Structure formats: structure tokens, C-alpha cells
Amino acid sequence: MGRKRHKTKGFQWVREDQQEDALEPVVRQSHREGRQEDAAVEALALRLLATPQKQRSHFPLSEPLMAVLAEHDRIVGAARNRHLRHVKKTLRAHDMPAIEAALDQGSPEEQRMQRLERWRTRIIQGDDTDIQAFVEAHPTADRAGLRSRARAARKEGPIGLRAAKQLFQALKSASKAG
Fold this sequence. Notes:
This protein is mostly helical. The chain is 66% helix and 2% strand.
């Protein structure tokens, strides 16, 4: 028969031929920690399900997880809740921090648009040297057109967005061509 292990929480029985120090302490997860972990997995699953299927291919997802996500898109009605549990179970087996980091970065198209928005802000707040830097990065860009649109956007200020939108469209077309 065994004896109760001392200095532990709960019942842990050890065999009589074992030392008390030989056993590893049991690490238990509290109920609150389990709920928090489950909420984090569910939030990640919902973020993945909210992204379009074309963008999911850019994330580090395995084929089984991609199949489960695609299947969830086809399911309608009350079965979606049950299938969400299946998505969460499949997601737990993957590297969730890497998937979260990829989701935070966004798709390559989103990254491109963010870069162009930064260029637009830099050109509007800056001067001709910023336009020159963009033209050097994208040689097919129309320097005179960019300069006139930037001047119009500076004149409109933060209230008017028309010229800023036109500048963004010019930057977008120049970056696609180059």
C-alpha cells in the first residue's frame, strides 16, 4: 500500500519504495487560467474565420486546419457553434503565436496599402525630397503629377480629403507599374 505525500495540495499517493523527492510536483491549471486560454483560442479562431479564404493562404496554416476553416465557411445554422469547437480543437495543435503574428501583420496586399499610406503622409507633410525618394523607389512614377497632387493636398489641409485620395491613387498606380 502507499502513503500520502506530504506538503502537497490534494491527494497524491506514492509507493512505499519511492522517495518523496523523486516524484515531480503536479502542476495544475486553475479554472480561471483554463477559461482565459480557451477565450484566447476562440478569439484567434474567430479572427481566422473572419479573414477571407484567399488571404488565409498567406498565413502559416497547415492543410488540415485550412480544410477545417473552409468547411466552417460552408456550414450554416446551429451547427456552426459545434464546428467552431472543432476549429478550436484543431487550432490548439498549431503554433498559435506564429499565426497571431501573421494575422497582425496582415496580407501582403494590406502591407502594401499601409506602405503607400505612409508614403502619402510623408509626401504631404514633407517636401520635394520625399517625392524624389518615391520616384527613385518607383521609376515609372510621374514626378510632376505627384508634385501637383501633393501641393493640392497640402492646400486642402486635413479637412479636405479629395486631393489626398487622388495622391494615394497616383501612388498606388505608380507602385503597381514599378
